[in-house]
Design a protein that fits this description.
By secondary structure, the protein is mainly beta. The chain is built from one helix and three strands, in the order E-E-E-H. The longest helix has 4 residues, at about 45.
């Protein structure tokens, strides 16, 4: 939870939650909501070749 970090009301606490559409953050004081974007890496970054193989 982020204390007093709401961009709309400037005093609300932001909580992070998830529903069937994905992750979002919401102010518990004014109800401001913003979808969170997940960083997606490409497959070559995740799977590094072993030494000595092609």
């Amino acid at each position: 939870m982020a204390i007093k970090k709401c961009p709309r009301c400037r005093g609300g606490d932001i909580r992070i939650d998830r529903d069937e559409y994905g992750w979002y953050e919401q102010c518990i004081m004014c109800g401001y909501m913003r979808d969170l974007v997940l960083e997606v890496r490409s497959v070559p970054e995740l799977v590094k070749p072993r030494r000595g193989t092609r």
